[in-house]
């Protein structure tokens, strides 16, 4: 039975109740529903803990997809206790970590607005994220930072819109990434829309994001690296140059 991935409709949901539907030989846990984001599209999966009825905890080190996107496997840390099928658990996402990832992922979308080149790769991290662009132009990192912070401070709304897989196939130009496949296969695809009526940006993405750009906070381009003749890697960090995040 497909899991009900609650985070797809509510990025701010950090706790919920769920029933164990399967426990794998390697300890991986499947649930009827979850607020834990599964690794996908360059964003790491959630960590956190499961609370049992007796108050004891099961610490989670990874959340990932199974053979398909409608299977989500929660992987406990080594030597953690195993629940049993049918057991009810209370899920607690490591919220400070998730929120940093949400801010970073939204910052990556803003960077794709400032640098309107095809994306060849991306990875979202707690301290630093990277976005690779198919470009040969030289660009000043401080100028990019200034444009990013302008979008952040304008406090544009960030909303979600759903379209069908068929609508995405019929409109391939909305996909900015050259190499990362949009989150298809569930019958519907989420578009992350920035600005009123998507005035700033709209692109398919299954990641988690903040609700307005001001939440991203202060960010900067720490480095722009040349990765091949037609590839530039932008590294985004929190704070200002020289700051600790």
TrEMBL record:
Its main location: cytoplasm. Residues 1-245 form the Alanyl-transfer RNA synthetases family profile domain. It comes from the Bacteria. GO terms for cellular component: cytoplasm. SUPFAM superfamilies: ThrRS/AlaRS common domain (SSF55186), Translation proteins (SSF50447). It holds the Pfam family tRNA_SAD. Its cofactor is Zn(2+). GO terms for biological process: alanyl-tRNA aminoacylation. InterPro entries: Ala-tRNA-synth_IIc_core, Ala-tRNA-synth_IIc_N, Alanyl-tRNA_Editing_Enzymes, Thr/Ala-tRNA-synth_IIc_edit, Transl_B-barrel_sf, tRNA_SAD. Keywords: Metal-binding, Zinc. GO terms for molecular function: alanine-tRNA ligase activity; aminoacyl-tRNA deacylase activity; ATP binding; metal ion binding; nucleic acid binding. It is found in: Cytoplasm. SMART domains: tRNA_SAD. PANTHER family: ALANYL-TRNA EDITING PROTEIN, ALANYL-TRNA EDITING PROTEIN AARSD1. This is Alanine--tRNA ligase. It comes from Rhizobium ruizarguesonis.
